[in-house]
Amino acid sequence: KQQKEIEQTRDLISRLGAGANSGRASSAEKKLERLQEEGQIEKPFQRKQMKIRFPERGRSGRSVVTIKNLEFGYEDELLFNRANLAIERGEKIAIIGPNGCGKSTLLKLIMRLEKPRGGEVILGEHNVLPNYFEQNQAEALDLDKTVLQTVEEVAEDWRIDDIKGLLGRCNFKADMLDRKVSLLSGGEKARLAFCKFMVKPSTLLILDEPTNHLDIPSKEMLEEAIREYSGTVITVSHDRYFIRQIVNRVVEVKDGHLQDYAGDYNYYLEKNLEARVKELEREADLEEKAPKLKAKSKMSKAEKEARKKQKMQAFQAAKQKSKGLKNSKRWK
């Protein structure tokens, strides 16, 4: 009965919204508002989004990963030449560098999926429990299991409703939970592999391009979960925004060595002129390719021009500084 009255009132508003009847329409609108204020209209149910956290299995020892004089390569290609690195509990590290420099290989060496030619890669002795998300994670899923079974089998101390809530946040609707993995699309498999990764207990997260195939809400959920995680995180990612949100240390793979920057991604850009120039070029390129919005911007035309000019000046200054640094090295 209540719903019928609401529909009738709305219909009346739409029919009387113009001309001589606009006064009556206004009265009907006030009536609708009054009903809402009095709480006579039930508000639509809004499910409160559950917070997702990586389950932690206690606390690891202080030393998590130690790399000593690492040598590794494929055939004639040498990726690491006497590389060294020490990673301690609680650090959140981004491994960066150009394509093909050995970033993903380094993660495999840490996970002991590859053996070094020389040197050592040592996992800490006390309670270092890695949870590894690799780029082709979706390919390892059991095609005969259902969506729910896939996550449920690795989840410890998770209520079934919480598992369903996690799947729901990753766009798996209720009617998909009993669907076999073999029937999922490539993107759905990737999201399911991500959910499976999210429920496994650990003290060390190792992630290789984790944001590939994830939509924006899933990325935000991952960022929040990593920020709340008190264990150690090592990630390889081309997603610079993602890196900015989560890391407190950057390691660059360069010329077979591991160049350590004891600060976040902004600190890395401050200390590395070449990387700063590339970042400015990337931002300018993205801005150029971005679709023009039809809605009016809050910034005036003059403000936009001033901002563009500032960016170009910063870009030119960084470029000149980088050029000067290269020349000074050349004449040393």
UniProtKB/TrEMBL annotation:
It holds the Pfam family ABC_tran_Xtn. Residues 320-332 have a biased composition (Basic residues). Residues 1-38, 286-332 are annotated as: Disordered. Keywords: ATP-binding, Nucleotide-binding. Residues 14-26 have a biased composition (Low complexity). Residues 1-13, 27-38 have a biased composition (Basic and acidic residues). One of its GO terms (molecular function) is ATP hydrolysis activity. The keyword Repeat does not apply. Residues 65-280 form the ABC transporter domain. It comes from the Eukaryota. This is ABC transporter domain-containing protein. The lineage of its organism: Eukaryota, Viridiplantae, Streptophyta, Embryophyta, Tracheophyta.
